[in-house]
Amino acid sequence: MLRTLFRAGGAILQQTQRTAPRLWVTPAQQRWASSLPMNTVVLFVPQQEAWVVERMGRFHRILEPGLNFLIPILDRVRYVQSLKEIVIDVPEQSAVSLDNVTLQIDGVLYLRILNPFKASYGVEDPEYAVTQLAQTTMRSELGKLTLDKVFRERESLNSNMVHSINQASDDWGIRCLRYEIKDIHVPPRVKESMQMQVEAERKKRATVLESEGTREAAINVAEGRKQAQILASEGQKEEQINKAAGEAQAVLAKAEAKSKAIRLLSDALAEQNGNAAASLSVAEQYVSAFSNLAKESNTILLPSNTGDISGMVTQAMTIYSTLAKTTPRIAEAVEEKMKALPVLSLLLCVCSVFFVGIYLFVGGFLLVRLEVNRTSTCGDVLQPGGGEPSAAAAAAADFCRARPRFRRAVLLVVDALRIDFARFDARNAAPRPHENKLPVLQEAAAARPAHGRLFPFRADPPTTTMQRIKGFTTGSLPTFVDVGNNFASSAILEDNLIHQFGQAGKRVVFMGDDTWESLFPKKFHRSLPFPSFNVKDLHTVDSGILQHLYTTMMGGDWDVLVAHFLGVDHCGHRFGPDHPAMADKLTQMDGVIRAVIDRLQNDTLLVVMGDHGMTDTGDHGGESHKETDAALFLYSPAPLFPGPPSQSEPDVVPQTDLVPSLALLLGVPIPYSSVGQVLLPLFPPHGQTDGAVGGLSQLEALWINAKQVNRFLETYSGMAKDIPPENLSQLKDEFSRLSSEYLATVGEGRPPSPELAASLQAYLTSVRDTCRATWARFNPLKMAAGLVILAFACLTCFILSELSLTLIREDGRGLKGPVVTALAAAVCVAAGQLLTQGYVEVAWCLAAAALSSELLFLWTAYRSRVTAVSKNGSKALKFASWLTPRQLLTPPLLVPLLRCASLLSDSYVIAEGRVVTFLLFSLALYIPFHLNWDGLLLPPSHDPLKSAGLLPSPALSPSTVRKESGTLLGCVGLLIGSLYLSLSFHGCREEQGACQPSPFLSPLSRLQDSQLKNLHYVLSVFSLGVWTYLLRRCLRHYGNLNSSGGAVFVARWILPLLSVCLGLHWAVSATPEDSFRNLAELISLAQLSLPRAAFCLLGLGLFLIWLDPLTVFIKTRAAASARNSALPPPRYRASTGISPQAELHHLIPQIYQRMRRSLDDGGSSGELSGAGEVDSRPAVEAYGLGTVYSAPLLLFCGLLGIGLLLLHPEGMALSFLLLLLEMGALLHIHASSTTLKGLHGTYSGGFKVPWAPIVMWALAATQFFHATGHLPTFPSIQWGAAFVGFPDGHTGTILPASLVTLNTFASHILFAVACPLLLLWPLVCEVRGSRGGGGRAACGDEGEDAVMEMRLRENPQLFSSALLQLSTRYLFIHGAQVFASVSAAAILRRHLMVWKVFAPKLMFEASGFLVSSVSLLIGVTLVLRVDVAVGRWFKRIIPDVAR
Question: TM spans, by residue (predicted)?
Fold first, then answer.
């Protein structure tokens, strides 16, 4: 009976379904309430339909597809809704565009019912409502666009239509999927005008082509005429060359004859009675000159004593004697040069030894963990086996043994999607730009809790993209050194999900960040990579993905789809999270996720995840919670979770846990090296897998996971011995116990206890924690070798600074022994390795070379400790006195020693910026206190012994001492003020808590307040202008802008042009993208061209300074008869003993010229002796000669500083100006201190630079590293510097890495290049008589003239040794800091903060030393280049005869 009733009901139902039309019928749609399905008690609802049932006239429920039962009479099917996609033709309608053109437009609307209840009761006629809404919306949208934009922006118009319709149709339960414009008709007249426009364009092209042809013809005719003229001029040129060659040969013949005559005369003068012969010759020429008087002119000049021939001869011979005495010293000054090769060779050797020590230690400290290059396969049988219901199943593989729960997967990686970006809080009435912009995730999870879930997704540091991709595809843990590979990503060799998908035959399609392409080369079925390094580009990668994402999903040529979006991450880097651009990006991602969810099939799993988070400034790379906590959203149209969220679910999901979970859900083996743990909420509890697809319960998934991790642990422990044996034994015992319990439980068929699953989870967690704690593998032998080499390098550098003069006098011969020994040691070690190991390890060859050379140098220095005799014959200090506590514990050396010791404290490293500022402040105050303690700061009191002449009295006046003291104290005040103001530009570390970073660190494009932006821009441009003005003012003050050389051209033109380019670049960069849309192309061109023009100007300026560094303007002193005329006095004088009169070609006319000038002055022969002789000699006025070395170096540093400022945010211009002021204050403090010591007679002589200014200089470099917003942490790196001038990104990694390095270590570069100024500036600021005896000895009989830097030229050996000593002392301070950082990292390698504080500090300190040493070599080489140019200049000025 019941069977008959069912059959009858089924037949009636089928007949009803065949005859009853639906609510939505196309193309004509009607509503027939009388034709709805009858209530036959048993109803079969077709797939993709929803039947709305009313009970007694009131809504009761919605029948889902399949078998359903209704109560007769009481229940009634009121509405039948189709859940399929519905197509509606929108009738043609007229609309008026923005430029008043009437258009006829029609379209097609694609709809789908999402909520049958709202579709039934929310609106009376859905078709009419949606159609009318589409028509009105279309009119509204067309009214916003011009006719041209209507045709260009159809896609944008369609998307706006969909968005507007969905806002109104959400209350009707209807979702508009897409809207397509079918056709657009324009009025006939408009169409005619469009045709006319096309014809005009074609006519324009024809006209242009015709004009180009005419131009080419004219050019050809002109080229022919040009060639004819060139050939004619070539003939004239050859004729003139032949004539000139003949004349030149005649001149050379005369010159050779004259040269031989002068040599014969010189030889004759050198013989016995040569003076008598000279006297005779002078007398003969004197008489001959009088015999020729009045032959050519009627104007005659006669001396007053024409008959006194003997007096005239005596006067001439006196002049000759003076010239003969001066000539050897002139020749010596011209011919002697600095010892360039020994200086550079010694510095290169010292730097190389430091580099080897750093390389060895870093190689032992930052080793990458051992990678297990094995892969899992579907045929793997994990041990221990068993636990399966049958013996046949017991031998089966653990992986791929059941049909996977999901056939496809879509992985959407939203780079830098922080967890709070993904949360939605309806109570937040005033959300920030990054809040409540991604509601789709929580909406989907709340509406269908069994289908979707949102988790916090925690990444392991370092939080950089490459390491995160490696983490969530391999399941392994990164090491600290992996952060260096973020810009040179190499292929992943470990087993990973992408490889497993390929092995399983799944087609993996990728689109987005091109980092994936380099990590997984040739692993994708299809790949669409886009450049990822340009953080200023917010849209290229995302737009490229959206062009292909939806079409790829609708196709069938994929199994796993990976899309990596970069817009959110780039927006954070460029603007930070609190910016309207971030709101736009998150809103765009919300729409993308909604569209992807709408296109998912039941067998597809959606994974939306962030690879890492970001700080409040938009950076990442560290380990703060905001950087590590990303979002993970799992969703599927089919039920994914066994139940609603419970308390047992994890609060945070580690990224490594995604790997085994995805592998088991998609039916592929878990990657071999994965240490992740399956996400239990994705699997049903034990005993509830009957209806689940795939058949794996939570306990089974944990068991497979535990066996896989145990297999990896056994393999890894057999290959590497870094896991502590006690931990390894404990883990093995725990797994053995758990496997016994699991096998016993399954074998007996009893239900497992909840403690078993908890124990398996605890085991997996223990393995991961153990690996994380031990995978910072160290090589103690390499670390110890690096420490020893660095320690000896510091000692070598210190001793080298004390032996600089000895080594320079030996001309670098002492360097040959260590170099030969180093090469021999390296060859011996390489040979030994080949014999014993069969290969050569370069690190140990370098270690042997460095250590052997250091030991030999130290032994040689120890053996030669007895005495070192200086040039004046006095004994130098003994070797033992250099290392006494009295020498080492002076305040200038005690400060860096204390700082090095403090690097063992993490608190010091965290607060290093302020501590270094305090140390520099303290040392600056020490100098005036120390001078006052020694009685040098004020003029000395009257001493009767000195007045009586019993004690020597230095040449000083009280006013001079007071002036220098005032200068010193004023510069100390300027330095303190600069230090205080520079604290306003510091960044903040994550450990500093409530610290607020400087607002000047943000680029102007991030500022929302226009007034504040304008203020920052004005301050930046003002600082740039002051920088340029101070440089030019200093050069002009010392007379270095008078010549026409390359360096002066740079100072006059390139320096201002570079500043203008920089100011314009700041203005363009600060312009919002949507402010001048009509000028968008011009702005983008300016963003590209202005920085590149600045780079070109910078390169040209530095090249010209190097090519022609002299800034000296020469002018011959006027004749004595013109001395009374109004001529500007020379600012600086060259040594007055030089006689560069180019018109005097041999000796006798030179003597006669002097006699005439002497006679013109009205002097007599007696007045030519003594002091009067010096003033009557011809000399050269050389403007800028006193600063010939420092001027090009100062200009080089100033130009380089503007170039480095280009790579920083605009607000850093103020900080760079403070850097310049601080640099000038330090130089003047050092110069005034040296001058005061010289005025009081306590100056030791020579050019030695004391320790105090060098230590302050090195501290200033570190202090301004922090004052430019940098910190020794990876998140503080200003990556935006890589895109200055390259907004579209780079093809390689060398150029962006170089730009970031220049940005990070700008202060190290500037202070290292300018370090030789410490040697030069006391001479620039020299006061007459301030150098006491040493100064007078250097100047000979001309000690009354302050010749400034020419004093260095007169003693090249002392100059070279002082430069070498200054450089080695500066390297010693930085090397000691590197050694202290290395020691701290080695001693505290197991410290809790080693990877967060000490390891980054080590990396930055080592990199800073590398950059500083290279920059110091550049500065020293520039000084040597200037010395070569000065030598050539003297050779041009002084004639060969005078030399």
Answer: 343-368, 783-805, 817-835, 841-862, 908-929, 1015-1035, 1047-1068, 1088-1107, 1182-1206, 1212-1229, 1249-1266, 1305-1324, 1370-1388, 1408-1426
Name the DSSP class of 664. H
**Roughly what angle, to the nearest 10 degrees, separates helices 188-270 and 274-291?**
110
Residue 845 lies inside a defined structural domain of this protein: no
pLDDT band of residue 266 (cuts 50, 70, 90) is low
Number of domains within the chain: 4
Residue 677 · residue 475 · CB < 8 Å:
no
Alpha-carbon radius of gyration of the chain: 44
Contact 801, 1372 (CB under 8 A): yes
Q: For residue 897, is it within any domain? A: no
Give per-residue pLDDT as tens, 1180-1235: 566 777 888 889 999 999 999 999 999 988 888 999 999 999 999 999 998 888 88
Q: Indicate if the pLDDT at residue 1089 is higher than 50.
A: yes
Same domain, residue pair 434 and 555: yes
460 and 553 in a single domain? The answer is yes
Question: Do residue 49 and residue 183 come from a single domain?
Answer: yes
- What CATH number does residue 410 fall under? 3.40.720.10
- 155 and 256 share a domain? no
Region label for 839, one of left (φ > 0), alpha (ψ between -120 and 50) or beta (otherwise): beta
C-alpha 593/C-alpha 440 separation (Å) is: 7
- Please name the residues in contact with 389: beta carbons below 8 A apart, sequence gap of 6 or more: none
- How far is Cα 957 from Cα 962, in angstroms, rounded to an integer? 9
Instruction: Locate 390 and state its tokens.
Output: 């049958």
Judged against a pLDDT cut of 50, whether residue 1132 lies above it is answered with no
pLDDT at 1125: 41
For residue 1345, pLDDT over 60 is answered with no
Any idea what the Cα angle at residue 976 is, between residues 971 and 978, rounded to 5°?
90
How far is the C-alpha of 375 from the C-alpha of 16, rounded, in Å?
A: 59
- CATH number where 115 lies: 3.30.479.30
Whole-angstrom distance, CA of residue 38 vs CA of residue 44: 11
Residue 272: what pLDDT? 57
Q: What is the largest CA-CA distance in the chain?
A: 168
Reported as a pLDDT band with limits 50, 70 and 90, residue 1097 is very high
How many other C-beta atoms lie within 10 A of the C-beta of residue 595? 17
**Domain span at 209:** 201-271
Q: Is 776 helix (H, G, I), strand (E, B) or coil?
A: coil
Q: Which of 1266, 1230, 1262 is nearest to 1366 (CA)?
A: 1230
Together in a domain, 94 and 142 = yes
pLDDT of residue 148: 74
- Which strands, in side-by-side order, build the sheet including 508-513? 526-530, 508-513, 560-565, 408-414, 604-609, 629-635, 452-458, 653-654
H or E element at residue 53: strand 49-55
CA angle 1015, 1021, 1027 (to 5 degrees): 135
State the pLDDT at residue 1308.
93
- Determine the 3-state secondary structure of 195 from DSSP: helix
- The region, left, alpha or beta by phi > 0 then psi within -120 to 50, assigned to residue 836 is alpha
Cα separation, 579 vs 792, in Å, equals 52
Number of residues assigned to the chain: 1443
Least confident of 270-279, 741-750, 901-910, 1080-1089: 270-279
Partnered with residue 1189 across adjacent β-strands are: none
Residue from 634, 620, 629, 661 nearest 457 by CA: 629
Residues 513 and 577 in one domain: yes
The domain boundary, picked from 250, 271, 292, lies at 271
Residues 6+ apart with CB under 8 A from 288: none
> Which residues neighbour 280 within 8 Å (Cβ) at sequence distance 6 or greater?
none
Reported as a pLDDT band with limits 50, 70 and 90, residue 869 is very low
Last residue of a domain, one of 271, 287, 306: 271
Hey, is 410 helix, strand or coil? strand
Q: 76 and 220 share a domain?
A: no
Could you tell me if 243 and 153 lie in one domain?
no
* Sign of torsion over alpha carbons 534, 538, 544, 550: positive
Mean pLDDT, the chain, integer: 77
Residue 141 lies in a domain: yes
